[in-house]
Amino acid sequence: MASWFRRRRPRVEAPTLTPRDTAAAALRVDLADLAPAPDLFLGHCAALHLTFVEQLTTAMSNAPRVADKDALARVTGVVLTRYLALVAEIERLQLDKSDIMAPHLDGVEEFERRTQGNSWQEQVASAHVTIGFLTDFWIRLAAGLPAELRDRAVAALGNGDLDGPVHRVLEREIAANPPLASRLALWCRRLVGDTMLQARSALVLHDDPARDESKIEPVFTELVAEHTRRMDRLGLTA
Amino acid sequence: MASWFRRRRPRVEAPTLTPRDTAAAALRVDLADLAPAPDLFLGHCAALHLTFVEQLTTAMSNAPRVADKDALARVTGVVLTRYLALVAEIERLQLDKSDIMAPHLDGVEEFERRTQGNSWQEQVASAHVTIGFLTDFWIRLAAGLPAELRDRAVAALGNGDLDGPVHRVLEREIAANPPLASRLALWCRRLVGDTMLQARSALVLHDDPARDESKIEPVFTELVAEHTRRMDRLGLTA
Fold this sequence. Notes:
2 copies of one chain form a homodimer. By secondary structure, chain A is mainly alpha-helical. In chain A, 76% of the residues lie in helices and 0% in strands.
């Protein structure tokens, strides 16, 4: 069953390349060889999105002010929309969502426990770092999917704005309480290792570790650079 | 400021009554005299919806199976949609959502703590009982709002289906584990008192307690009857 989904579809070359196609082609160079089959891609990514909902609503619950609760409720809605779009792809492939998400639950829940902060600010920072990094990663990983599914998966993961509102919650909080910055910077640095391991766990590695690493390294370098930019925008040292 | 919203708007009589208008008119007889001003109605109801999101995602997080997590994620989406529609009404009235929700946070969070179950099944049952009862109540309470706002508030609270999916989660769980029924029946009975107190806390009482009670009692009798039907459908003694 799964092997059917590993079958490569012939690519139809478009007569011209739009900027988006060019970007997609560049990404395909990176992770296509290590990308999981559609069932693994979608099952893992949808299961992760359930933990993102939990992470954001825990932070929402612990946030003392209405403005922050409201912002976190709205981004929970964004993550839910992405989750529903991923499940819609699972169903379009006539796969059983329970069957394909269940094998990933333990892994993503353990990841969620390891990255759950103690204070609500740490919890928001965790959401910012882990959802940001893993969404960037999964969009790159989509390069290995059949073309149509790839486009729909990338669109699913691009639904709504999450980065902006979460950034603004943290920005307000740091401005109101500047000593928080150094604690959050340490906390966010602490998160990167677990987040990278979670991303790696989705890759299909081969018998040639040196070759695999040569594919993985440039992508992770890019993802860490994006993470660093995310921290810089908050005035935090990555 | 608040007094502005207490001002009664003249009602425009429609030439004919649709069944919906008749129902609304019947309800207006019940709670209109005890209904809070729009700012209190919307602030309290929106704050409650944030705790509904927390309640449902806690249950989702603790539910072991994907099918239940998925169902609870979807009803979280329903509650979020209702929340956003309520906040849209707050903003339409040019009120500050933080100012009008903040005074209700402590009360609704204390209510959430008191009605939070220990097991995930109790947590789902809590959501079923408390969200079901309080949504029915707030729809009746809307009878006291100016006509246009009333219609929009009732529409906001009617977005999506919450009762059906939550019922089915509990139904499956009780079928798989019949001894659970008596524990859940006790737990749900335990919830009704706190839920009725939460509802009462939204009423504006007057100097004539006997008159107030004569208005409240028939409404609460109806709401408890609806609660009993909800329990009956699950085979639980209310």
